[in-house]
Structure formats: C-alpha cells, structure tokens
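Here is one chain, start to finish.
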Amino acid sequence: MKNILLISTVNLFNNPRLVKEIHFFSEQNYHVSVICFDIGYGDKNSLILEHNFTNTRFIKLSGLRSPFLKWAQSSIFNKIALAINPFFKKSISINAIAHNKRTYLINKALKSIDTEFDLIIAHTLGALQPAYKQSLNTNSEFAFDMEDYHPGELIHHKNRDVEINRRKFLLRSILPKAKYSTYASPLFIPETNTLFKLPLKNQYTINNGFFSNEFILNNLTDSKINLIWYSLNISEGRGLELILPILKKYAEKIQLTLIGNLDEKFDKQYNISNSSFISFLGHLPQKKLHMELSKSDIGLSLEQKSKDLNRDLCLTNKIISYFQAGLYIIASPTKSQKNLIQENPNAGLISYNLEKDLLFIIENIESIRLNKEKRFLAGKSLSWDSEQKKYKEILENV
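Its structure:
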C-alpha cells in the first residue's frame, strides 16, 4: 500500500478538485495525507468535508494571522523574497516564496513530517516548489495538478508583469521534473507547453466533472422559462451583469435563479433582492446545488474573457455541471467553451448577441425541453465517474 501526500495552499472548500482526488486515492486504499490551510472563508465547510474522510490524515496550517509568530515569519520572508528577487531571478526558492508566502509555511511543516511518501502531488502553484523540494530530499516522486492556468490568472499585483514572469519561471523550472502533470482543461496543455522548447511528457487532461448520482433528470412544463446562474460570489466582473438588463426586458416570460454569496453593492446596483423575476438562494452545498440545477431549463455560463487569459482557457465547474444536468447552455465565446459546444452541438449555443439568443430560446423552448434527456445522457461523458478512471491509467503506465 502506497503513501501519497497532497498539498494545497487553500482549504478543501476552495479546492474541490483536491476533494475529488482524496476520494479517489482513499477508494483505492492508498494511505493519504493532506497539507492544507485554514484561510477563513469556507473553513467550516472544509471541516465538514474532512469528516467524510475518516482514514485520511489532515495536516492543517494557518493562513490567518493566528498564530501570530508563524504569520509574521511567513510575511517577513515573503517581503524579503520580493525585495531580493530581482537579484536572484534564477532562484527557485526565492521565486516561490515571493509568489506565495504560504510556500514558506509548507516547507517548514514538511521538515517535521517523517513519513516516507511514494508520491507527492501539488494542487496549487504555491505548493509546487515544496512538493519538488520534498521529493528531492526524500527520493520520492512528485506530480502537479493544474486547476487554473496560473500565469494567465487575473493578478491584482502592482508588478503584474513581474509576477506573470515569476509564475512562468516556476513552471518552466520545476514542471519538467515531475512524474506527470494533470490539467483541468484541455487547453491548458498547449498553453503550458509554450513555456518549453519541447512539449512535456506525461500530460493528461482530467476534466472537473462531478459524480453522476448528484444529478437527476427533471422534465419541466412551467409556463415561464427557468434560467440559472451560480458562482461562489455574485458580484461585478463575473459575467452576470452582461445579461441582467436584457432579462429584465423579458421578465414576464423568464425566471432567473441565482446561487452564491451576493455582494451587497452588486445587489443594490441590479436590485436583485427585490426583483420580481429573480430568485436568490444564497450559497448551497454541492449536492443541493446540483439537485437545484434540475429545476432549470437554461444554464448561463457567461465569462468576461478579457479579464484574464485563464477565463478564456478554463473549462469551469459551472459549464460542466450544466452539461451533466442536461440544461441548455448559453455560453460566452471563450476558447474552451466554444470547443465544448462544438463537440456537443446539442448542448447549447455560443452567444455573440445575448438578446437575440434569448429570443431564440423563448421561441424554441418546447424543442429545447424535449431534448433535455439527450443532453442529460451526453453529459455523463464528463462525469467524475468517467474522469477519475484516468488516474488508474496514469498510475499504472507512468
């Protein structure tokens, strides 16, 4: 029986892909250890998730200001690394700590762990250097799971270009040494390979699907067309503001359900709480959310791809869950979403004119509803039931 260590710089709630991987390795009877963080947001939900894995060892670190000494140490080392980074551009350690101060805390925690791991898997960029360093120190293997294309993420940093180059350097320096790497979107692989002279070996796409039993087929006959949109946060810059003014014009014919944490400023701006055609359900646990999807006809997967390259390349949890629920999808023309709709033309449409496409749906809602079962069955192709099987192939062949 093998020992596996999974490392993340966030908690389980904010890293659902990590939760799926814990589940897979636990089901395969591996000894699983997890390093993750308390970060404030989602910690209570993460604790509930942890209790589902009775045979998994969780090594919890704090990303909060308490305990103060560790927080202060990591903050000081992060500031030092940022200051001296221009003079040590080729230092993996300095670049890593400059990128994320939690990297320092992970490295420190690893020094006190005496377990010999067969495989160490980093789940965030801040965990990559510690996984690599620990593999060198213990003569073990390491791997990397890329849930987002990190150099292309929206970066709130006064030296944005410097941070982008730092992230590229870390991937370029460490990733070729990994046993394998997995990606949550097919488009992450070619984009990552632009960083290297030759494409990396042992790269695999594992889509971020969900278990099929979390979805049910619900054929609707409501007089109004039911649309749904969800995210962790309902706020500006998430794509929803693109369609709200249009939906208001057709309020007599549609009903919109919003799920997530509603930003107060966004609520006031669009009058969401007092709207006659919007139902706001707040945050829902994953299984309840997926059950709620079945009550809708249309899934809105709107992205503002100009915000960051990652939005253009990623295949979000949102659009995959709509696909699995059999909803008809209205999607923004990001590269990844266009690929999904092109491969599954009955799944929905790529929208270049939201009002025109909404009118098309209003006029064709009967045929859209009649094809829901076909979409529901097609969505099983991206389920986690199918995607997790790739791990077996990786572990057997790499």
